[in-house]
Specification:
alpha+beta; Alpha-Beta Plaits; 2 domains; 7 helices; 53% helix; elongated
Length: 219
């Protein structure tokens, strides 16, 4: 059975292999990150306004708000594309737009990740304003006392580079590579059945080592 000293000796003998695999994995993560298309994140925040403070109406909000994303139809997205002169299809834009209802906070978050930071901001605002009109139109199907509207709290602004997270990817790659390196090092040690030291002989034979033959050093 391996002891703590044995594990330490394995690390001493094969530390270079562990470091090498960690460096290779980190370099690979860096390369993959640089190959990714950069995406810039913009976010707009809207307050949800109810016509009255009623528990029944508040209880309806989760279902009502979760259905708002359905108002962003292909026709509406095409209008936004034309308005912003993006020359993009509704299916293309839909991949980059996230509508995040937060009924508990009476908030609606519009988040856009797009290859251009300025366009991400404009697109988030355009989507928010489109939803604002669509939500207002839905009130025609409800009693006036049950009206629900949204109002701009924070116009769209650039938040961060959402992709790639190069530093995080490199760190994660290095850590994963280090773990793989450890597994490889101990795997090689397990497969190596040669006896290298007196301690190895004592452990595998159960007999004490009485002496060793010194290496023949030429003068």
């Amino acid at each position: 059975m391996l002891q703590a000293r044995d594990y330490f000796n394995v690390l001493l003998r094969r530390w270079w292999l562990i470091v090498l695999i960690a460096l290779v994995a980190a370099a690979a993560a860096y390369g993959v990150s640089k190959l990714q298309t950069p995406l810039f994140r913009a976010q707009a925040t809207y307050d949800v306004i109810t016509s009255r403070w009623d528990q029944g109406l508040i209880n309806q909000l989760p279902n009502v708000m979760n259905n708002w994303s359905g108002q962003l139809t292909d026709a509406r997205l095409q209008e936004i594309s034309d308005q912003l002169q993006l020359d993009r299809s509704p299916d293309y834009l839909r991949k980059y737009v996230a509508i995040q209802p937060q009924p508990g906070n009476l908030l609606l978050i519009i988040q856009v990740d797009y290859p251009n930071a300025e366009t991400a901001v404009r697109l988030a605002d355009a989507v928010g304003e489109t939803l604002k009109r669509e939500v207002a139109a839905l009130n025609n199907l409800r009693l006036s006392t049950d009206a629900i509207n949204i109002r701009v709290q924070q116009p769209a602004k650039f938040l961060e580079l959402s992709q790639p997270k190069t530093k995080i990817n490199v760190l994660a790659g290095g850590i994963l590579g280090g773990v793989i390196g450890l597994l490889v090092a101990f795997g090689l040690e397990y497969l190596d059945d040669t006896l290298k030291t007196g301690a190895d002989i004592e452990r595998w034979t159960g007999l004490p080592t009485l002496g060793t033959i010194p290496a023949n050093e030429s003068v």
